[in-house]
Amino acid sequence: MKYSVSIDVPDLAKGIAFYTDVFGVQEVARPIDVYAVLRGSGGQAFGIIQKPEGSEPAPETDDRRHYTRHWTPVHMDIEVDDFDATLDRLTAAGGTVEQVFDMENRPKTAFCADPFGNGFCLMETRD
């Protein structure tokens, strides 16, 4: 089985800039004008796809895409070695840190969102 994760953003260039600035990933492919594949140093890849604000996310729905903070039951967990420095880059690049957990005997974890409202968990590298 093979899978991939794609993130909807209203502006492809701004989406690429956010994820490359914060996480150090690199664009490795642009199969179509509105879709870029980004890859991290660990080899994991994900896609960024430009979808307009207000567009229909699925046929036969009244729902519309919006880029304010939203909840979804599916999200990425991103593990980093430099947790505090990543949080600093994240906020400098326009993302938000919603809650940080620093509990004894557990890796630091934060609930975060990119500038487009997509939530994810940032996690300190586990031993």
From TrEMBL:
What SUPFAM superfamilies does the database record attribute to this sequence? Answer: Glyoxalase/Bleomycin resistance protein/Dihydroxybiphenyl dioxygenase (SSF54593)
Domain VOC, first and last residues per copy: 1-125
Does this entry carry the keyword DNA repair?
A: no
* One function term, GO molecular function aspect: dioxygenase activity
- What UniProt keywords are attached to this protein's entry? Dioxygenase, Oxidoreductase
Does this UniProt record's set of keywords contain Oxidoreductase?
yes
Name the UniProt record assigns to this protein: Glyoxalase/bleomycin resistance protein/dioxygenase
State the organism of origin: Maritimibacter alkaliphilus HTCC2654
* High-level lineage: Bacteria, Pseudomonadati, Pseudomonadota, Alphaproteobacteria, Rhodobacterales
